[in-house]
Amino acid sequence: MEKAYKFRIYPNKNQEILIQKTFGSCRFVYNHYLAKRIEMYKTDKTTINYNQCSNDLKNLKLNYSWLKEIDSIAIQSSLKDLDQAYKNFFRRVKQGDKKAGFPLFKSKKDNRKSYKTKYTNGNIKVLEKQIKLPKLGLVKCKVSKQIEGRVLNVTISQNPSGKYFVSVCCADVEIPQYSPTNSIVGIDLGIKEFAITSDGIHIENPKFLRKSEKKLIKLQKQLSRKTKGSSNRNKARIKVARCHEKIVNQRKDFLNKTSTEIIKNYDIICLETLKIKNMVKNHKMAKSISDVSWGEFVRQIQYKADWYGRLVQRVDTYFPSSQLCNVCGYKNSDTKNSRLREWECPQCHTVHDRDVNASNNILNEGLRLLSA
Question: Mapping DSSP to helix (H, G, I), strand (E, B) and coil, where does residue 260 land?
């Protein structure tokens, strides 16, 4: 199994310059061959694949000698990314996706930068407080955990606040399995509360964006008043980026801890399938839905279930989990109104908490699908 380990790195001045040169060179090569492929198609309806671009790269290095200073594998990786972008575009077109996006040129003004390089002949090595990287040599690194398995590749990245990170992808990683718990659960995801389980556990929604909104508004106002291109504007931009970064880190930490706890405690997890792209079209709820991050939570549940031998069962989007009585099956259409938090079943007279009832219905439907 493959697993990635992400660490923060602290390059010195010379290493930082070389990293920035690599970012720029990879962007230049990507844009050069994207423009070439577009021009060839416009001229005579032909194109070139990855191998042809790779062979032509020798001629490009003759014209631009500064490309020779850069890690050659990183440049090759940018060509592979371009080829994959084309393949993804045509695959989506064949599938009938009318909104399939054609590959775009990379912008120099993008604050998120990265490049990938592969392991060959011991050119990558993780030490106690350093990491050995191609062309860069030994870079100071905060190694927070011991890596396992065989190193495949690394991705060096810089986030908008200016911090540098390295992600080490390893293969043949042995992941210890959790012992069986013989427990099953249905989970109803919400906004007022993050999640409600079928055994009555209510997980609070931390609302990290809402809590930091006043500070973020203040920083963004300060940024808008700065002159474009000035150093003061860049300083204000970094402050905004750090505020966003803190919100993202808080959310990731919460989601990781919550998903791991669920995976530890339950063998079978039943979840509803949500069409989040459609839900965020509701402008009154869009910010809250984006802040709660259901999609990332479900993704983490799924990959951790695959790692630790748990089973995730998804329930159909249109299954009326909130409308059905989990005791007798009576369908109450009044519960379409989300303000109705508690109701009594007219048929069996059971009093239901809206969310706990929904999670029980999700569990029952998930078990039915599994048995079928």
Answer: helix
Q: Give the type of residue at 273.
A: T
CA–CA dist 60, 259 (Å, integer): 48
The pTM of the whole model exceeds 0.90: no
Out of 83, 272, 291, 365, pick the active-site residue: 272
Active site residue 272: yes
265: DSSP letter: H
Q: Is 188 one of the annotated active-site residues of the chain?
A: yes
The one catalytic residue in 71, 83, 267, 355 is 355
Q: For 75-100, what is each residue's pLDDT tens digit?
A: 999 999 999 999 999 999 998 888 88
State yes or no: is 44 an active-site residue. no
Give tens-digit pLDDT for 336-366. Answer: 877 788 878 888 888 888 888 889 999 999 9
Amino acid in position 325: C
The one catalytic residue in 188, 267, 291, 365 is 188
